[in-house]
Amino acid sequence: MTAHHPTPINTTHHTCPICTANALADGMTICRQCMHAYARQLTLLRQHLTVLQLVIRREVHLRERGGGRGSFAPLGIDVSAADLETEAERLIDGICTVAGLPGGRWQRALPRLGANLHTLAGLPDAADHLEGLIRINGRLERVTDRRPRLRRLVGVCDVCGAMVHAVQGEEWAVCGRCDSLLHLPSVRRAARTRLDALHTTQTPSGAAVWVSRETGIDVTRDDVNNWIRSGRITAPRLENGYREFPILRLIELAESKMDSKRE
Ligand SMILES: [Zn+2]
Ligand SMILES: [Zn+2]
């Protein structure tokens, strides 16, 4: 966690500190919706740690085969796998302690947490715990996710303004530039107005490359030229073949291309 927010014992505000949208029920320090998100993060953590075991075993196997430091060194990801497990376990153990539950190995401690959600959602540091879970899950995902998934531009970080990419349906992301934890439904809601004002100066082929990179959807120069010709996008002409493209419209058209392909 980058920022630790001291939580007052007597909460003067009654809005959920995580989503900053919903009201808090009596005795809760996070809202019901975020409590469900908490449960999903616990389930996710269990899945990630299970897969992590395979990664760690691979590490052990490679180490035993004994190529020495030389052959082990390039596997940076494996080196950190065991550390990551230790870190996750420390977080789980910390939550158990505050909640008055026995800690220990994650295989036993995690189901215990899952069975005591209402207690967890009433702890003074519940928001910090949830943030810790989201962050460790984000890091674990990078180690345990074996099939890379399509990340799309979802909006703009409301702290630093960097573009935020995420897998469809994901709830949380950590900003790649400023490390802020971002609640993606809010980022998506704000995206329209934030991105609406943004333009990119490109040639049509430059715009195709740009939007392909931002959306992960294959867009060609011909697509972009078709959009201009048919009036589906308004991109004022500048000098030397450059045009000013509205970012949001480019993304919408790319996504409609993918949707029409799917049908
Ligand atoms: Zn909430
Ligand atoms: Zn940021």
Would you write up a description of this structure?
This protein is mainly alpha-helical and about 260 residues long. The radius of gyration is 23 Å and the shape is elongated. Residues about 5-10 and about 60-75 have low confidence and may be disordered. The chain contains ten helices and six strands; from the N terminus they run ααααααββββαβααβα. The protein folds into three domains: about 30-145, no CATH class; about 150-195, no CATH class; about 200-260, Multidrug-efflux Transporter Regulator, Chain: A, Domain 2 (Orthogonal Bundle). It has helices at about 30-65, 70, 75-100, 105-115, 115-120, 125-145, 185-195, 205-215, 220-230, 245-260; strands at about 150-155, 165, 170-175, 180-185, 200, 245. A hairpin with a 6-residue loop joins strand 3 and strand 4. It has a two-stranded antiparallel ribbon with strand order 1-2. Strands 3-4 form a two-stranded antiparallel sheet. It binds zinc ion (2 copies). The site of one zinc ion has 8 residues, from helix 1.
Distance between the termini: 43 Å
Give average pLDDT, whole number.
82
- Along the chain, the helix and strand elements come as HHHHHHEEEEHEHHEH
Q: State the helical fraction.
A: 40-55%
Q: How much of the polypeptide forms β-strand, as a percent range?
A: 5-15%
In DSSP terms (H or I, runs of 4 or more residues), the helix count works out at: 10
Count of β-strands? 6
Order of strands, widest sheet: 1-2
**Structure ligands:** zinc ion
The major beta sheet can be summarized as: 2 strands, antiparallel
- Uncertain segments of ≥5 residues (pLDDT<50)? 6-11, 61-77
The Cα radius of gyration reads 23 Å
**How many distinct domains?**
3
Structural category: mainly alpha
Characterize the overall form: elongated
